[in-house]
Amino acid sequence: MAAPVDSAAALHAPPAERPHVVFDLGGTWFRCGVRRPDGVLEQVTRQPAVNYLSHPRLSQPELREGLVGYVLTQTQRLAPPASGRSPRVSISMGAALNGHTGVILNAGPLWGPDSQPFDLLGALAARRGDVTWFVTNDVTALATYFAHQPKYRKAAKISVLTVSTGIACRTIETATRTVPLHPLQGIQGEIGHVPVDFHAAGDPMRLRCDCGAVAHLNAYSSGRGIPQVMARLGHALGEPDWLDPALLHEPAVWARVLRRGLDERKPAARRLLDAVVRPLARSVISLLTVDPEVARIVVTGGVPRALGRHYPDAMLRNLTELGLYLISGDDPSYFADTVAFADSEADAGLQGAALAADVSVTGSPGGPPPHAPVLLAHRSRRMEEVRRTAYGVTVTDSGASNVLVDSLVAMGSGLHPVVVVDAAVAGTHGPVLVSALEQAGFRPVLKSVAAGEELKSWSSLAALLEVFESVGVSRKQHPVVAVGGGALLDAVGLAAGLYRRGVPYLRVPTSLVGLIDAGVGAKVAINAFGHKNRLGLFYPPTAVVLDVAFLQTLPHPYMVSGIAEAIKIAVVEDSDLYRLLEAHSGRLSDPGFYRTEHGVELVARAADSTMSSLAGNLWEADLERPLDFGHSVSPVIEVATRGGTTHGEAVAIDMALSLEIGRRRGVTAPRLADRVIDLIRRVGLPTHSGSVSAAQLFEHLGETAGHRGGDQRFPLIHRLGRHPEFVSDVTAGELAGAWSRLSSEWGPA
């Protein structure tokens, strides 16, 4: 949704050199400012909106010209013309907007009941062709802003409901920052224009919406609608103050009068607030009913802000009375936990406009993939496809065969699964799996391969693909079953993802690291060009079977290696899991421990915590990943020791280095750093390696930055069980000092 620019050099100038002007154009206020590359807003100003109520003598074309003139004047002020510095301008627009083209479809709060479509981008581009223009709906901007906040990142979807001059809602997928839109009109969530059957004081009430229609939700529950209801009910409820004509023209007046009545606990004020909130509560119930992936609803806007605590009280009261079938009745705190009331700062719209523009043009911020490519001259078509995945992860203590059969049956797959099994466990477990499959009516093909890191190579990948070709693997009839450790799961998963552009596969990890980490995610890869996991895909399995019985035959070094991943996930995600690890630290490398209730619980908690950390970011749209703790320099430690250090040992050393750098910076409390390092050593893992220098580690940190979007994003631990703080300014000297202290204070494990 941008207009073309004349100067290619200006368009591709570094962001730091191109001013980013942002606007938030609402029905009540016009705001603008400049957003710096670090996200700080400067020179922010606001003025009353140019709308049909405040300027009743202006025609609709004149009102439009007033808006265009404001944008052009402020752009000139905030980003004066300068050679090679063509500005970007991002606009959050309070109007029904075609998200595909940027054309305003209806702007009733601004231009009145006869509002007509208007190509705002075209009008702006005709005046300033040197500017890169972007426009988005104001609630889409708010949804993008809230989706960027850490507190909402774990939710698959959030819905943002704004109650202001008008009412609108947007549901956004937090991982991709995608707001699904109607394929033609490009709108979503215009709930303010849903007809409602409104009754108050025992009688039906039919009021007119800003758009000109009658009985829309906006006409009763918005900042323009509530004073209309107050005026109609003033006599019936004995509130003469509600009849003041100023209430209909001054938002601050009606809000002050109603809030005073609520503060004084007047029954009429509470009765009116319940009446105007109840239709919105019904909309929330409908949304949660039809889209269970919506994990949080964020209610914001001028009306909740003006009425203070009374508004959330009324909303939660009405939601509770209405109820969500078979859900809220069993969980009294459901609505309080699901519906958040965010008194978003006035700058949220400005920030949201910039963030939405970044997502549209570059796939930023935070790395989400682009979901709205730039449209030039409004003659392009956008392809939009949301990536979705769902797969079950089942934990068992001796039933892998049965769970595998159930999973294949549930898939509705063909009768000829291709079972690729690690040669080290093929003799023990292969016949059992094949027998169970045959008894269930399947005709499996068993292929035993030598696993380990050697399997993650070009030649081994080619060999796996040749197996698929010789069997004649099809997309539906030959599901692939990978049975083995993390390396086998990686290689077989990549082969499955490449063959025929993807055939279904299931994971049955047999190592501890596979059970709690590698087996439950979506990444598959092989090593290439001297680097670990250089070539790979995000290719989720169809199902995962976690059977702790496989650990009974796992060699001791691999048991210890897997514990490192359990410590990692506990530190960044689950403090209860960490305490479980501490309580049983002396038995964690004993396969017999995993026959006990505590052992099974440990595996289940660790796998669940890994999945919780991945949820909403499975494709790593956000490059600040808590699971990267212990994985910043560990690859070079593995390579430098030429196979003498396991993956888990390298991760343990990396974690110790991160803790030490955090300690030196004052981010990680010394007691916490010592506590985690002590656990690492107690379970038999190292905290230092003499085979690699600090200089090598720092050099590899540059390679890591290349994988993390150009920044180090080095995780530092602040609190146990909480996501790390990520920094990108670790210096060579700082790393060398931490590395030296680990050597002198802790030495070899």
Can you describe this structure?
This protein has 749 residues and is α/β, with parallel strands linked by helices. The chain is 41% helix and 15% strand. The strands form 7 sheets. A 6-stranded parallel beta sheet has the order 14-21-18-17-15-16, with helices on both faces. The chain has a 5-stranded mixed beta sheet with strand order 3-2-1-4-7, with helices on both faces. The protein is elongated and about 85 Å long. Residues 1-16 and 362-381 have low confidence and may be disordered.
The outline comes out as elongated
Count of discrete alpha- or pi-helical segments spanning 4 or more residues: 26
| Main sheet summary | 6 strands, parallel
Number of E-state strands = 23
Based on CA atoms alone, the radius of gyration comes out at 30 Å
Strand content: 15-25%
Strand arrangement, major sheet: 14-21-18-17-15-16
State the helical fraction.
40-55%
Mean pLDDT, to the nearest integer, reads 87
Structural class, please?
A: alpha/beta
Low-confidence stretches: 1-16, 362-381
Distance between the termini: 58 Å
A few lines on this structure:
This protein has 749 residues and is of the alpha/beta class. Helices cover 41% and strands 15% of the residues. The strands form seven sheets. Strands 14-21-18-17-15-16 form a six-stranded parallel β-sheet, sandwiched between helices. The protein has a five-stranded mixed β-sheet with strand order 3-2-1-4-7, sandwiched between helices. It has a four-stranded mixed β-sheet with strand order 9-8-12-13, with helices on both faces.
